[in-house]
Amino acid sequence: MEQASAAAVTDARGIVTGWSDGARRLTGYPAEEVVGRSARELLAEDPPDRALAALTGTVVLRHRDGSPVTLGLRAQPVLGADGTPNGYVITADRPGEGETTLAGQAFQQASVSMSVFDTRQHYLRLNDTACRVMGVPEEALLGRHFPESVENAEYSRGFHSNLRQVAETGRPVRYESFTGAPALNREHAWTTEMWPVRDASGEVTGVALVALDSSDQYWARQRLALLNEASAAIGTTLDVVRTAEELVELLVPRYADFASVDLLDWVLGADEPPTVLTGDFLLRRIAHGSATEGTPEAAVRLGGADVYPAYSPPARALRQGRAVLSQAGEPDFMRWVAERNARAPAGGPQRRGAHSVLAVPLRARGTTLGVAVGVRIANPEDYGDDDAVLAEELASRAAVCIDNARRFARERTTALALQHSLLPRDLPGQAVVEVAHRYLPSGSVAGIGGDWFDVIPLSGSRVALVVGDVVGHGIASSATMGRLCTAVRTLADVDLPPDELLTHLDDLVTHLASDDTDEEAAELGATCLYAVYDPVSRRLTLAAAGHPPPALVLPDGTARLIPLTAGPPLGVGGLPFEASEVELPEGAVVALYTDGLIEDRDRDVDHATDELCRALTARTDTLDALCDTVLKAVLPEEPSDDVALLLARTRALGADRVATWDVTPDPAHVAATRQAATEQLTAWGLDEAAFVTELVVSELVTNAIRYGEPPIQLRLIRDRTLICEVSDGSSTSPHLRRAHVFDEGGRGLLLVAQLTQRWGSRQTGSGKTIWAEQTLIPD
Question: So what's the pLDDT on residue 636?
Fold first, then answer.
């Protein structure tokens, strides 16, 4: 008791039985004037009930000179043999006076918040740090029940529950929480430890606690969690705008009350990046978001362009290449906010509370793409250096994703432009087929594929229908597609049968793959379907290289696949291709397509093929409308591959438009053959073409008799052009040559070439056919 600053002893009835010298110094009463009297006679006012219940609290005594003395009292019961209190030892300190013991001083001056409660959760002691956190002096809390001193919130209820648990179980508790405090202007993270205080007998007499402010560690963990989340949340698509939106969604509302992403115009176009960034900056708003509904803080609309003056935080960030912090009170900050407010409706009231701005450049691969801006309005914390480091890390990750999306968009645009330049724009008009087509580039991240189609006019009013698909995606596939498309046209001009044409095309793909050393080229491959329709015989001859078979819609409305033997894909090499032949009625529709129409990882090919056949039977006014109907019925909402569709409705050339003569292999019969051709032209009303036709018939028949082999046949076809064909049993093809001055022959084919629109020869199963076309004057 001698260590106490003041002490007194009372019996169970409250009669003073002991009085220390320290008590005399505090109250002025010597021991002889107090001992034997009731302790209540010394009070200037009744103590609070909670202080009596808790045996601790602040009371007011009457000094011997009559003045009031405020003291902090603590009572400890003196227990008898039966365990009931026989009296009390009371110690007192004057509020505000320092602790007299080393242990008391250490408790009172500790830099962490420390408190002591009794087993019924009444305050017994608080150190100076705890009082600062609570925002009230110790005497205002001593003896009070904890729930009375705080608001009824989840954190308070949890704290109270833990106090009771420690008092009831006698086991310590450690837990973390994130909450505010009455005297703090923002929420803090706390690590709280509670442990039981026991007397000599081991009975729990109170609960002590220490609360550590772990806000720095908490925010560090939050920043790491945000970075980890950013790696999964930013860059989920190869779309520039969506990537910017993902960055904004990550920042708002936990990191910023308002955030925006603005990009330099060249990022969204085809221009090269500027070499130096100086002065004012023209930026385009790509994404913004706000903790307030409707984003009222935005002074620039989405997609709109704005000039950022050189003094503004975004412009400074772009120019310096690092994060820029700007706070309320700084001249440039106030000037920039005022300029923004002046442009907003009603003076931008939502922005008036803005007090801190963080602008960070979006840089990827050494190139500046734009700037991200975060603004704090409702959040009272200003941005600090740790926030700048976090923002730069987030911006760096987002910038790489934006740059990837930009590069993908540019490559996709380039590949699409290349592909469209190689695909036929206006298919040549044909008398024998009516065509319609659709090409849908893939929207997947794999990029544009190598699908193509073509309609190639051949000799004899025949037409070739082609559709193909190059393995892979991107510019390389589009370039390969262009090579194959050109090769097919070249081989078609030679008039090769479908199976032979695919054999030559297979050799070409094999050579292309072997000539390139990089891995992508080594995997070069393609599929192709080549079909030739003859309107005279009404036969469709076709061959496939790993390509799905075409569908056929008959005039009666039924649809089916055309059976054919599918050869290996182009580039395999060494395997044969087989041609199939089918006779078509006039008005039949042939549908050629790439595998993207019916194949998908989530669809059954057979089911998709059945859907295709059903869709082709739909009644439509035009083939164009039928194309749209098929795509709508068969394709999923987001196709994973390119799709090419080519529809061709057949027409036939009747016997009234074709005339055929067998020619006797004797020069004496040339005149009769020429006369028969002239009479046929007269019957067709084509007398104006008689002169040229006589010359062509005479030259071609004479050459067949002289250099060819029987049988010899002459055929005239009246289509959009007048076609003259002479067939013989020899496989030797003629060629133009320049005749010398004294040569008696050699000028016939030269005249034919000069007088006709075009001429050529093709190999047949029994020899060759020489043909020439004349332009007819429209009726």
Answer: 83
